[in-house]
Amino acid sequence: MSKKLAVVILNWNGKSWLEKFLPDVVRFSPQSDIYVIDNLSTDNSIAFLLNHFPEVKVIKNDKNYGFAGGYNEGLKHIKNEIYCLLNSDVEVTENWTGPAIELLEKNPDIAAVQPKILSYDRKKYFEFAGAAGGLIDNLGYPYCRGRVFDDIEEDHGQYNDETEIFWASGCCLFIRSKDFWEQNGFDERFFAHQEEIDLCWRLINSGKKIFYTGKSEVFHVGGGTLNKQSAKKTFLNMRNNLLMLLKNLPFPQLIAVIFSRLCLDGFAALYFGYKYGISHFWAVGRAHFAFYTYIPGTWKRRQKNQKHQFYQSKWLIFKHFLK
To answer: Within 10 A of 141 (CB to CB), how many other CB atoms are there?
Structure first.
């Protein structure tokens, strides 16, 4: 019989991460089924798992579907009540699953939970991808408690609470399988980056809540597949953020926010080009053209109900960079 929780790791040529971090996942998840979904790796990941971790169940995708599509394909074969989607470059700690499961069991309105995510390399600091829970501003810029743009806070226990948030990081995401599939999973067109924000936004629009718990913590390396200096990462983040806004923004704000973002992205292109190189400048332009081609299909995916109050901060980019 399946256990309540399935810890599910998506892998693509991540044998070195599995060697490093999977032993603790097995050790500290005794009440869970553990799965690895493999996106057609070519680095002997499968052989390594079969030889060294026979207790871990392996699901083989027939191609690299990316993060969004890879999970959608693999999770079709997993019937547990709760999924924990866990990046392969995450170090878990003792009792890391307990607080999240407890929150989900106590409140049926909570669809997803994220633990505290700290940096693996700087253990006293929050990690970029999630930190202490995701929020969003009125122009659609995602940020976190503990991380605003590239500024990272040191962990002094200031976020040891349990509270409602706007989005939970896909780096370590506990979610009810029922709620995941009622939303048809991730939007596979995103491939990777911000697909979890889009999913959480859709869950909120359907009346569900997203929560953070500071009673559980994990340590994330970050950039295990695409590092911050990757132009492809810039392209995916810029394109997917626009797609997410078009899908989920309440109609009264939609035109003004999209127009504002298209203009501000011009400044972002100059900034990224100066900071990371010309390839990042062009990545922003390519993201815009890709967004335009996706508009008809994205419009069809809009839900009937969008929350009119969706943001937690206003004009974050101006406050942060100008003030």
So the answer is: 19
Report the distance separating Cα 29 and Cα 221, nearest Å: 20
CB of 285 closer than 8 Å to CB of 273 = no
- Say how far apart CA 90 and CA 84 lie, in whole Å: 12
Contact of 216 with 96, CB cutoff 8 Å:
yes
* H-run or E-run covering 146: none
C-alpha 165 chain-centroid distance: 13
What distance in Å separates the CA atoms of residue 178 and residue 197, rounded to the nearest whole number? 18
Q: Which residue, chain included where needed, has tokens 């869970």? A: 32
Q: Residue 267: what residue type?
A: F
Burial code (b: 16+ CB inside 10 Å, e: under 16) for 231-242 equals bbbbbbbbbbbb
3-state secondary structure (DSSP) of residue 321: helix
Question: Could you tell me how many residues make up the chain?
Answer: 323
Amino acid, res. 208: K
pLDDT tens-place values along the chain, 323 residues long: 568 999 999 999 999 999 999 999 999 999 999 999 999 999 999 999 999 999 999 999 999 999 999 999 999 999 999 999 999 999 999 999 999 999 999 999 999 999 999 999 999 999 999 999 999 999 999 999 999 999 999 999 999 999 999 999 999 999 999 999 999 999 999 999 999 999 999 999 999 999 999 999 999 998 655 555 789 999 999 999 999 999 999 988 999 999 999 999 999 999 999 999 999 999 999 999 999 999 999 999 998 888 877 888 999 999 998 88
pTM over 0.90: yes
